[in-house]
Specification:
Low-confidence stretches: 135-146
Mean pLDDT: 79
Order of helices and strands: EEEEEEEEE
Largest sheet: 5 strands, antiparallel
Structural class: mainly beta
Helix content: under 10%
Number of helices: 0
Number of strands: 9
Radius of gyration: 17 Å
């Protein structure tokens, strides 16, 4: 079965990198405390595609993360991947995939709750200079009824 994206879960404002800086998008799968229906379960694992785009909306880096409850993952972006120069603009995005088997009526992809952040870090020291977090926990929306 091909997994389809349910919803974009995180998108930063346009951020910039300077010399000796990189960017990292961090995702954490926070399992829901109590599902609306106790019989429903999230996909195992929750699958998220994360991507970095340059200022012209061209994808420059991507990765698929398979997250178990409580697990995190990240994707790193370097200035060189954006074409170098003194400054480079970028934004990040993540999409939760619906990996539920259509025959499994207990699988609920909307329970893949993802906390996301993007940080700009010093390439030598690893110190974070900018941190942008998603204002709301991202979650997948169910596909429209057919």
């Amino acid at each position: 079965m091909a997994a389809s994206a349910l919803a974009s879960l995180f998108m930063t404002a346009l951020l910039g990198l300077g010399p000796m800086q990189g960017a990292r998008i961090n995702l954490l799968y926070v399992p829901p405390s109590q599902p609306l229906n106790p019989d429903d379960v999230p996909p195992d694992p929750c699958v998220v595609d994360v991507e970095f785009f340059n200022a012209q909306s061209v994808q420059v880096e991507s990765k698929e993360l398979m997250l178990e409850p409580g697990q995190s993952g990240s994707l790193l972006l370097t200035l060189a991947q954006l074409g170098g120069g003194n400054t480079a603009l970028f934004y990040a995005e993540g999409d939760v995939k619906n990996t539920c088997n259509p025959a499994d009526t207990t699988c609920d992809p909307t329970q893949c709750t993802i906390q996301a952040s993007v940080e700009v870090v010093d390439s030598k020291t690893g110190i974070t200079t900018v941190l942008a977090t998603s204002p709301l926990r991202g979650f997948a929306m169910p596909p429209p009824a057919q």
